[in-house]
């Protein structure tokens, strides 16, 4: 699996955690559970940031790879033509 898939899995886990903690707060009325559910949004934001950074890194890696495969013409005939 690509690293981006793991970041998406982390985002899904954060959403599940938010849903479960919100449900627990609704059933019990515990303000502590509500606080934990709201804090879980930070985990969701971090997971989504990780996804976006991994996508950005993959796009730059592809661009850098394409640039690295082009080779300058270093043959002796090319240097005489200058």
Task: Provide a brief overview of the structure.
The protein is mainly alpha-helical and 82 residues long. It has helices spanning 3-28, 31-69, 76-81.
From the N-terminal CA to the C-terminal CA, the straight-line distance is 49 Å
Instruction: Tell how many strands the DSSP assignment holds.
Output: 0
Rough outline: rod-shaped
Structural class: mainly alpha
Question: Count of helices?
Answer: 3
Number of spatially distinct domains: 1
Strand content: under 5%
Question: Keywords for this structure?
Answer:
82 residues; mainly alpha; 87% helix; 0% strand
Question: Would you give an account of this structure?
Answer:
- The protein has 82 residues and is mostly helical.
- The protein has one domain (3-69).
- It has 3 helices and no strands.
- The chain has helices spanning 3-28, 31-69, 76-81.
- Helix 1 runs antiparallel to helix 2.
- It is rod-shaped, with a radius of gyration of 24 Å.
- It starts with a helix and ends with a helix.
SSE map:
Blueprint: H1 3-28, H2 31-69, H3 76-81
